[in-house]
Automatic annotation (TrEMBL):
Gene3D superfamilies: NAD(P)-binding Rossmann-like Domain, UDP-galactose 4-epimerase, domain 1. CDD domains: TMR_SDR_a. Residues 5-242 form the NmrA-like domain. It comes from the Bacteria. This is Uncharacterized conserved protein YbjT, contains NAD(P)-binding and DUF2867 domains. The lineage of its organism: Bacteria, Bacillati, Actinomycetota, Actinomycetes, Glycomycetales. Pfam families: NmrA (PF05368). InterPro entries: Ergot_Alk_Oxidoreductase, NAD(P)-bd_dom_sf, NmrA-like.
Length: 283
């Protein structure tokens, strides 16, 4: 595929915002899908559409060669993604790349992993050129704890389990590679960082990057849920607690080579992430 036109869903989000420049760097033409025109992505074509509005999606998909599907945090995320995939097929779009999650499994006790597995199975049954990306915990999700970290402390119910957390810039660059080169049809890539790290190690690395003492404290799921309850609906909070129980069981520690294989560059280490975001953590 040479210089494809790619529809990027979630273009304002964590991965999507890094995917737009990564695709441009590979010579692709980007059509950024946004819900709110006021949040249009500069420097590329924008289309206003919503995963809840199939007509807007049909219009957004018109004329593109490939689509990148990022799930929003929604209780009906699986249904929205399956319908989007159906529209990709009926719209004659040549390639679909789906952002799933590390260890997606229809039998998982983690609801998000079941939802992603449901979408993966649906997409696999459509008979279209598709690729699945399964990233592990985003290092960028630590930015959600930045205020606490800047004050010297953060907590999560993860114990001393190591997690091969991945930088979302590497997810975006891997996605850009898959969207613009051949040989990925039907493949599933698990995207991780270059090593598995405990949250105590993460605290030490951010401490080194900021020059400030930062402690990690293992907290209970109940304490975690109580702290986050004001910020998200119950289904999302329960899902997040399930995610962390999965990390705490040591189920997210495998290191995969896919980022380096796809991008030609080693996956960023937590130290790279901490250095690049030191200001957000109060350096
Ligand atoms: N966080 C992690 O550690 C992690 C790890 C592995 C996998 N994942 C997966 O990543 C996905 C979500 O990532 P995230 O929480 O970091 O979110 P995000 O990609 O940063 O943000 C969600 C994006 O979806 C857009 N969006 C929301 N509702 C939409 C709708 N109805 N129609 C179209 N676009 C919509 C948002 O646009 P607006 O600007 O309009 O709101 C935003 O651009 C989930 O599938 C999750 O399982 C996350």
């Amino acid at each position: 595929m040479t210089a494809p036109t790619v529809l990027v869903t979630g273009a304002t989000g964590t991965v999507g915002s890094a995917l737009v420049p990564a695709l441009q760097a590979r010579g692709a033409t980007v059509r950024a899908m946004v819900r709110d025109p006021e949040r249009a992505v500069p420097g590329v074509e924008n289309v206003v559409a919503d995963l809840n509005d199939p007509e807007s999606l049909t219009a957004a998909l018109k004329g593109v060669d490939a689509a990148f599907l990022n799930s929003p945090s929604a209780a009906d995320a699986a249904a929205l993604q399956k319908r989007f995939a159906d529209l990709v097929r009926s719209g004659g779009v040549s390639r679909l790349v789906v952002l799933s999650q590390y260890a997606a499994d229809i039998d998982s006790p983690v609801r998000f992993l079941r939802w992603h597995a449901e979408v993966e199975a649906h997409v696999a049954g459509l008979g279209i050129d598709h690729t699945v990306l399964r990233p592990n915990l985003y290092l960028q999700s630590l930015l959600g704890f930045a205020d606490g970290i800047a004050q010297g402390w953060f907590g999560a119910p993860v114990g001393d389990a190591a997690v091969s957390a991945v930088d979302t810039r590497d997810i975006a660059e891997s996605a850009a590679a898959v969207l613009t080169t051949a040989g990925h049809t039907g493949r599933t890539y698990t995207l991780t960082g270059p090593r598995a790290v405990t949250h105590t190690e993460i605290a030490a690395v951010i401490s080194a990057a900021t020059g400030k003492p930062i402690a990690f404290q293992d907290i209970t799921s109940e304490q975690f849920a109580a702290a986050l309850a004001p910020f998200m609906p119950p289904w999302q909070l329960e899902g997040l607690v399930e995610d962390y129980a999965h990390y705490a069981r040591g189920e997210a520690a495998e290191v995969h080579a896919a980022v380096a294989d796809l991008t030609g560059t080693p996956a960023r280490d937590v130290a790279d992430f901490a250095r690049d975001h030191a200001a957000a953590f109060g350096a």
